[in-house]
Amino acid sequence: MFISKVFFDDKNSFFDDDTYLSSPSVNIGNVGLVEFIGGASNDQLPQGGNGFTTNYAFSRKTGDGNAFGIQGGESLGLRFTGDYDLVISALNSGALKLGLHVQALPNGQSDSYISSNTQDTPEPLTMLAAGAAVGFCTVFKKQRSQAQKA
Questions:
Q1: Cα Rg of the chain, angstroms
Q2: What's the pLDDT tens digit per position in 13-31?
């Protein structure tokens, strides 16, 4: 399998016409046979985008099958102009999203993947423990209320 396209949804929701990134450069320090083309684009993320709006799209150079896509042990270097702290914050909050189109999955399938915010999601056991704690507090409160009435 290999990554054939990389997309950025770069819409700063605080400022209608503003974005987090600008002035893209591609193929900066690539590792392997990776070679991509692209830049500002409204190309669509394959398989739909769940509200993903493309501002930048980069595609592997065509020819020689998947030779120019990103495969295991390889990397693509992209460079943008932007405020580092704002970009990191936007990635963490999900305001700036990255989309990937992966090809050559089992049975010749392909799929698209979209980054999401990196906020920690509670583990199921933590949620169960929190629910149990609320339940115990409710029972304890009822027992205490009944004891005070007696």
A1: 23
A2: 555 556 889 899 999 999 9
Do 7 and 54 contact (CB within 8 A), yes or no? yes
E runs forming strands in 11-146: 22-26, 36-40, 56-60, 78-81, 96-103, 111-114
| Strand 2-10, strand 56-60: pairing | antiparallel
Domain boundaries, the chain: 2-119, 122-150
* Alpha carbons 44 and 39: distance in angstroms, whole number: 13
Q: Residue 102 and residue 54: Cα distance in Å, rounded?
A: 17
Reference 7, options 51, 58, 42, 48; nearest CA is 58
Query: Going along the chain, which residue ranges are E strands?
Result: 2-10, 22-26, 36-40, 56-60, 78-81, 96-103, 111-114
pLDDT in tens, 76-110: 999 999 889 988 988 888 888 999 999 999 998 99
- Spatial CB neighbours of 63, under 8 Å, sequence gap ≥ 6: none
Q: Is the full-model pTM beyond 0.85?
A: no
Joined tokens for residue 87: 């970009």
Distance CA 26, CA 38 (A): 7
